[in-house]
Each structure stands twice: as C-alpha cells, then as structure tokens.
Amino acid sequence: MRVDRVSDPSALPAESVVVATYLSGEDLPDSLRQLANAVGIHDLEDARSRGELTGSLYTVTLFRGRPSLLLVGLSRRRDFSDVRWRRAVEAGVRYVSRRGFSHVSVAIPPDLQSRRFSEAAVGAVVAGCYQEQLCKTEDLEVSSVQGMSLLTQDDSADLNGALMLAESTSVARDLVNLPPSDLTPTALGERARSMAAEAGLRVEVLGRDGIQALGMGAMLGVAKGSGEPPALIRLECGDVASDTRLTFVGKGLTFDSGGLSLKTAEGMEWMKGDMGGAAAVLGAMRALGLLKPEGILVRGLIGAVENLPGPHAMKPGDVLRTKNGKTIEVLNTDAEGRLVLSDVLSHALELGATHLVDLATLTGAAVVALGTEAAALVGRPQSWVDEVGDAAAAAMERAWQLPLYPEFRRRIRSDIADMKNTGGRAGGGGVLTAAALLSEFVDGVPWAHLDIAGTAFVESSNGYSAIGGTGYGVATLVELARRLAANAAERINPL
Hints:
Layout: E1 2-6, E2 16-22, H1 30-38, H2 44-49, E3 60-63, E4 68-73, H3 82-96, E5 103-107, H4 115-129, E6 147-151, H5 159-177, H6 185-199, E7 202-206, H7 208-213, H8 217-223, E8 231-238, E9 245-256, H9 276-291, E10 297-307, E11 319-321, E12 327-329, H10 337-350, E13 355-360, H11 364-370, E14 375-380, H12 382-394, E15 399-401, H13 406-411, E16 419-420, H14 430-439, E17 447-451, E18 457-458, E19 468-469, H15 474-492
Parallel strand pairs: 1-6, 2-4, 2-5, 5-6, 9-10, 9-13, 12-16, 13-17, 14-15
Antiparallel strand pairs: 3-4, 7-8, 8-10, 11-12, 14-17, 18-19
Helix pairs in contact: 3-4, 4-5, 5-9, 6-9, 8-10, 9-15, 10-14, 12-15
C-alpha cells in the first residue's frame, strides 16, 4: 500500500473516500463544513436535521461523491482521547475497505495536525483494512484499498516509517491468528528466521538440546508434556558496541491447554493466542530492523513451548530448577508462562541487557482488573516504568501501572522451594503475584512487565477491529527503542 500527504482536498483522487471524525451533541466543526464543501458534499445540515448524523461513538455515515465523505462519530467532547480518535479512523476505514473504494484519505483535524497523529492515522488505515481470514477458502472479504493519503498541512511525519510499523503490527496479528497446528514452537522459529532475513536482523534459534545446555529447567519443565520440541528464539539489531542494550522478552506459548491443571473447553478456545507477547516482540523487531535506529543494541528473546497434558507432563508438586539456580514449586501447571519467562529473563541478563521489557498474556486476573482496555504495567525502578508507560501513551496503546508491594513476594513463598508458581486465589492480586515471581529474575536491571492478556486479541466485534490478534505492544516497543536511541545519540552528540 502506498501513502502520501495532501494539503488540498481538490487534489484527492475521485475514487477516494475521505474519513473525518466529528463530535456529537454540538454544532458541526467549521473545519468539517469546509472540508465537505471542498469535496462537493453540501447536505450535512440536512442529514443532521433528519437525525442521520448522531455522532454516537464509532457510528458511520457515508456521503457518496467524487470523492466521497465518511463521517465517524466520536461521542462527547469531554470523552475525547487520542485512542478514541485512532479507533474512530480505524472504524471508518474498516467500513469502507470492502465497499469498492481503492483509495482512503484521512482528514486530520486542525487541532491534531502533528507528526504523532499523522503516523497514528497511517496505522489506523492499515489496521482498518486488516481481516483475519488466513484459513478461509470461501466468502473472502478482500479489501479494495490500494493507497492512502493524509489530508493535513503538517509535513513532519515519517509516513514510510509509520507504514513499516503498521505492516509489522499486521505480521504480529497474523501470528496470533494462525492455528496452533501450523504455529508450533519449531514453526515459530522458522518464521522468525524468514522475518529476520527480510528485515536485516541477526537471528539464532535453539532447540531442546541448546535450551538444556543453557540450564533452562523451568522452560523445559513446561515443554515436557508436548511432543513438539521447545524453541528459544534470539533476534538482534543495532550497534553491538553500544552500552545501551534494550531487550524485549516475549511469552511464546503456541498453545496452552493448562497442562494437567487442565483448562475448561471454553477456556482453551483462544489459547492459540497465548503467544501474543512473542508476536509483539517479533513484530517490533521486524519494524526496528527496517527502521534501523542507531546508537543502541536491541534484542528480542522468545521462549516458545506448548503446554499439554502428555505422559511426561510436569505435575503439581514438582520442583523446577531455573537457569539462575532458584527453585520453583509447581502448584498449578496452568501458571506456566511465568516459568518460561523466568528462564528467558535470566538469559537476557546473561547476554548483558541494560533495560528489560517482557510482554505476556500471563493472567486472567489482568482481564478482571482492566478488561480489554489496557495492559497491566509493573516494574522497577519507577523511572523505567514511567519511560515504558510514556512510550505506550505516545503509541496510543493503553497501559496502566499496578503496584508491586513486598507483600506479593510473601504470597509466593514455598515451604520446600525458593518460591511457588502461584499465590493462590485467596487474597486475589494474581497479576502481581505473577509479577512478583518474575521480579526474582531481573535483579539489578531496569525491568517492566506488561500483562497483555486483555489486549492481545479481540474475541467479539467492537466496531473498529477485526476479531483475533491485535498486535498490541508492537508500537510501544518500537517507540521505546526510538526514545532510547534518541537519548543515546544526545549523549554522543550533545548540543
């Protein structure tokens, strides 16, 4: 898909549809009236008087013309947010992408004309055209959109870079949506190799023997129940001599049955998506390989396994020895993601990480706490947590910090091992007992944990996104890497 910037509506292609957002319960903005007049649409007020322009959130109204105009509701002004605006654009593009339009233009409102909103609009267009249909042979819904324009006076945006990021997010979405029979740990490693060759990344994939040689007893414990071997995926780009070594760690459970602590049938329906953290890391590394930030080294580490109740599966009561020597008593085999991450985080420190972020569809408790609207953010020190939270906000991906009190560490004390892998239901706080365990494996390095269980995939229609993987986290990780790269450049070349 091509993307360009247009400052004059009269220069738009006749087959284009212009997506514009507006508010409800108020007069139509003057900028919207001017836009409508410029593209030859003169009946907005008539439509409003007929009740066709309600402005309800994400509702769409199409005015046919050459070009056409599509209005998307944003509800009340007091409820406006950048996330809602981006979703409104995505909803509008989703509406028109299968209605024969070959070109989509997004009108950036005058008060939002900036690099950030222009680049977000590019992401929204690509997301709006996305459809999860990887395995369909009939009733395919193919987007007709081949190009996009941004209608704005601002020319500061890196539109090609935004397009690379958006396409990398689509790659992450595809990975989450693949059937678990097609995306085994080995297959995920093969896809990582192919992606690395495309994006110019350095890559290494270790199998069971290599993982065992590294002493990753917790990861191997989870993998024992499956006939599919585990894989440790290592990706890298940037300056190997840099003293800023940012590492992303992704949970890669390509399928999670719960092991012997078996999930319900309903609970397993979306467990092909339990590698949403790994998908985000792969998508972010692809984007960074193409964007090539300078002055830092970026690594992506993924622990890919299946958690199945096979004849050799780990059992409640087992004790696993992790890479850094600590022992974990397994009380619930469905609390497996933290076991895998404990070893991969230790490996990240062994490789010299100076800054860490892990992403995982880790706990149902995160969904209980925050629903599908935000990821749970935990970490230390506060300055690094703030940095990650600011990057998420800039990327228009919501993350909400939760406190990691010392009491949560006490909840995972074990009588027979260094810790146990669950704090139990009593007392709640499942997001934070899981994070407390992870915190035992990141000593001395700034670390942030994003529990993306509620944000990694969409289970039912919400008006703006295709059902399935969302690619949550890709944009946050790329923004974070860009910020660290800019800081490194400033240290090297101070004003």
